[in-house]
Each structure stands twice: as structure tokens, then as C-alpha cells.
Amino acid sequence: MKLFNTLSRRKEEFTPIVPGHASMYCCGPTVYDFAHIGNMRTYLFMDWLRRSLRFTGITPYTVMNITDVGHLMSDADEGEDKIEESARIKQRSPYEIADEYTAAFFTDMVALNIMLPEQTPKATDHIIEMIEFVRILVEKGYAYEISDGIYFDVSKFQSYGKLSRLDLEEQQAGARVEVNEEKHHPADFALWKKAPPEHIMKWDSPWGVGYPGWHIECSAMSRKYLGDIFDIHTGGADHIPIHHENEIAQSEALLGHQAVNLWMHGEFLLVDNGRMGKSLKTTT
């Protein structure tokens, strides 16, 4: 069976780490609202891949996370947590919001006949693992502390940009993310954010009360359930330049070796030649 690897940009013969089995991680939903049909295309892609593997005699073991904290409005690690914003607008607790839309998401999965993954861990259940992940990165010199949190120093990871083919030397400050003068490089990303007093979802840490960055969640949970190296990581194409690039950097910095053998991405669902987005949302 040949699969297209986003990292190498070519089709590769799939050879699982354990013969007859495939370890997979799929980036799951941020549960602050109903999923639209464009979102669900990512999980149909996951399902088609899992069914194809089964057809060839390979048994997949899949982990799909539920992001119920830490996904901010801006890729620059700025702005309000999406779930806390939804809770504020709806005048409910963020935990109620996360529970409601997690249940709705799984209802949609069943309606689309998507086989549920073997594990669907929630970010809020794995704060200890995330704090330990960040602690090791700080200890190894890959992360540093500034006034609003702990950030990964992309200049310390020599192959940063290998998934998206990003050249840091050519990147201009603010071209992809907003400028934070305290950051060493504009592409440095948050591993742990220090929480303001009004922030509801927050936990104690070695760096004060706060909450995890979005990217660290997937690295911590994939490592817990799939080990230090696994076969396939999937997600939407929009994750390539930031989320998955950052996952690679922090995971490989911690481990000292490759964490994922093959990266696969589903393309966008298009509406009128444009990406299906929240402004065109249709619930399933």
C-alpha cells in the first residue's frame, strides 16, 4: 500500500513499525461550537484511511484528541481561548460548553458512519503530561520564559520548517504571526500560557498558574498513547504550516529523534471555489 507523505512530498510504500498494525494520531476538534461539514471532512479522511488499512490486512490503532482548552483565537498565541469566548457569549461555564459540543461532535461522527477511534483523550485530562513535556523542553534549552508564558525557541531546532518548507531566514517579523517583542523569533510559539485572574480554565505549574498551548497538547497525548514513535499522523491541510510544524519541533526536540514516520493531510472542502469555513457553517 502506498501513501502520500506530506513530509517527503511523495508516495511511499507503507511499512508499519509493528507488522500488521498501524499506530495513528488524528488531530481532533476544538469543541467550542458545532462542527461544520468542512470540519467533518478531516474525520472522513481519517476513516477512509483506517478502512483502507483494514482492507489490506493492517489493523489500525487510532488516537484522536479532543481540544477543550488552550486553542486561542490567533495563531500568534494571542487572544481569548475559543472555548472561554464561547462560554462568555453564551453565559455558561467553559466546561459545559466543551461537554455539549463534544457530545454533538460524536453524534455527527455516528451520523456519518465514521468508525470511532480507539482512544479519544481530552486535553484537560492530560495537564500533568503537558507540564512535564514543557519542563523537559525548558531543561534542554529549547524553551524560555517571558512575561506571558513559556515559548519554544525555533532557532534552537535546526530543521524547523521541514514540513511546510518554511525558511526562517526569509521570514519577516509579523508576516505569519503578530509581533511580540519579548519573543526571540516571531515564529516562537507558546508551550504554556500564564493565566490572567479572569481566566477560568487554569492549573498550577512550575511557571505559575496557567494553561497549555494548543500545540503541546497533541505532542503530549500522542506520546502517552502511541509511544515515542508512531506510524501515521493525520489532520487537515490547514495544520501543516503551524500546528503540525510546531508538533514536529517540540516532539523531536524532546525525544532527540523522529516522532512520526508519515504525515498525511486532508484537503479543504470547497464552496464556490473557497474553503468551507465558520462563516459558511452548516451543522451535520
Q: Any overview of this molecule?
A:
- The protein is of the alpha/beta class and 284 residues long.
- It contains 6 helices and 12 strands.
- The relative contact order is 0.19.
- It is globular.
- Residues 279-284 have low confidence and may be disordered.
- Helix 2 packs across helix 3 and helix 5 (214-226) crosses helix 6 (240-255).
Concise synopsis of the structure shown:
This protein has 284 residues and is α/β, with parallel strands linked by helices. It contains 6 helices and 12 strands.
Notable features of this structure?
284 residues; alpha/beta; four-stranded parallel β-sheet; 31% helix; globular
Rg calc: 18 Å
How many strands in all?
Answer: 12
Strand content: 15-25%
* Topology as a string of helices (H) and strands (E): EEEHEHHHEEEEHEHEEE
Average pLDDT reading: 91
Q: Which sequence of strands runs across the widest sheet?
A: 4-3-9-10
Structural class by helix and strand composition: alpha/beta
* Count of helix runs: 6
Helical content stands at 25-40%
Describe the sheet with the most strands: 4 strands, parallel
Low-confidence stretches: 279-284
- Name the overall outline: globular
How far apart are the first and last residues' alpha carbons, in Å? 32 Å
